[in-house]
Amino acid sequence: MRRLFRALLVEDNPGDVELTRDTLEASKVRIDITVAIDGQQALQMLRREPPYADYALPDLIFLDLNLPKISGREVLAEIKQQAELRAIPVVVLTSSDAELDIVKSYDVGANCYLTKPVGLEAFQSIVRSVENFWFTLVKLP
Questions:
Q1: Looking at the 3D structure of the chain, how many domains does it have?
Q2: Does the keyword Phosphoprotein apply (predicted)?
Q3: pTM over 0.85, yes/no
């Protein structure tokens, strides 16, 4: 039986959530996708705070930078500061192509930075590329 991979999608845009989920669910790889709609919820899940005490940590995190409550930048910094979480690869998938956002994301430990493309096919292609790389080629801890 094929391995089940777990992904945490931290995204507040319902359209991007649906598109990412649909693309990943159409994969040949078995992926369980959990969605956090803001940075606060993502950190609660990752820290296994109530009501997420039984949350299974993900193999990969898709992280938008522009989130309500706690920004994606703060979430990324927190993930990479915690020993239990820092080995989880974080793919920043955001609308920002600002050089400062890119540099700061890598400075605090992003494993990959991708700008969300405009258009359905381009977006699906990016998500499939991430999926193929992280769930097929890379050996995850």
A1: 1
A2: yes
A3: yes
